[in-house]
């Protein structure tokens, strides 16, 4: 079952998706490693989210897990979570090490998000340099053009 997303959740690109996805992974990892039951951990994670769309989907996951569906299947049914998360959750459920796998996913997605941000900033720096060069060129031309026109007027 596919739910329509609100307009504010339709952010394009992979980095925004990673930003929306990271907090529930990290929260679930911490809570499950602390020994909190999965349904309670899902509820707490859902309540801490600012993104209404993700909060809605995590609520669906919570309801599905409460009714007996595995966490992996519930996450997959929302069609909102990365394949990496789904595979790691499935592996964690089968091995009995769900908290550790969630922690790994959270760390992996955090580092991937940091790399994307660093790459975007690295691409943005040359644009800033070009813009500053344009501003300097404008200032230099604003100073030199009147001087040149005065010189040409005096030469006549």
TrEMBL record:
Show the GO cellular component annotation of the record. plasma membrane
Membrane topology listed for this record: Multi-pass membrane protein
The protein's UniProt keywords, in alphabetical order, are:
Cell inner membrane, Cell membrane, Membrane, Transmembrane, Transmembrane helix
UniProt-annotated stretches for the region Disordered: 1-22
Q: Where are the transmembrane segments?
A: 123-148
Q: Which Pfam families does UniProt cross-reference here?
A: T2SSF
Q: Where is the Type II secretion system protein GspF domain?
A: 27-146
The record's subcellular location field reads: Cell inner membrane
Q: What GO biological process, any one, is recorded here? A: protein secretion by the type II secretion system
Compositionally skewed regions (Low complexity) per UniProt: 8-21
Q: Do you know which InterPro entries this protein is assigned to?
A: GspF/PilC, T2SS_GspF_dom, T2SS_GspF_sf
In the record, the note on similarity to other proteins reads:
Belongs to the GSP F family.
Its protein name is Type II secretion system protein F
């Amino acid at each position: 079952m596919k739910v329509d997303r609100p307009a504010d959740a339709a952010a394009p690109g992979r980095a925004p998706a990673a930003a929306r996805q990271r907090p529930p992974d990290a929260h679930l990892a911490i809570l499950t490693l602390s020994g909190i039951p999965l349904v309670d951990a899902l509820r707490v994670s859902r309540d801490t989210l600012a993104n209404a769309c993700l909060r809605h989907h995590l609520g669906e996951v919570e309801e599905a897990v409460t009714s007996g569906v595995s966490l992996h299947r519930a996450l997959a049914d929302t069609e909102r979570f990365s394949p990496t998360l789904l595979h790691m959750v499935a592996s964690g459920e089968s091995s009995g090490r769900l908290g550790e796998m969630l922690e790994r996913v959270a760390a992996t997605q955090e580092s991937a998000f940091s790399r994307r941000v660093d790459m975007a900033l690295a691409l943005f720096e040359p644009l800033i340099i070009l813009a500053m060069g344009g501003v300097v060129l404008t200032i230099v031309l604003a100073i030199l053009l009147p001087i040149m026109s005065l010189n040409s007027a005096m030469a006549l």
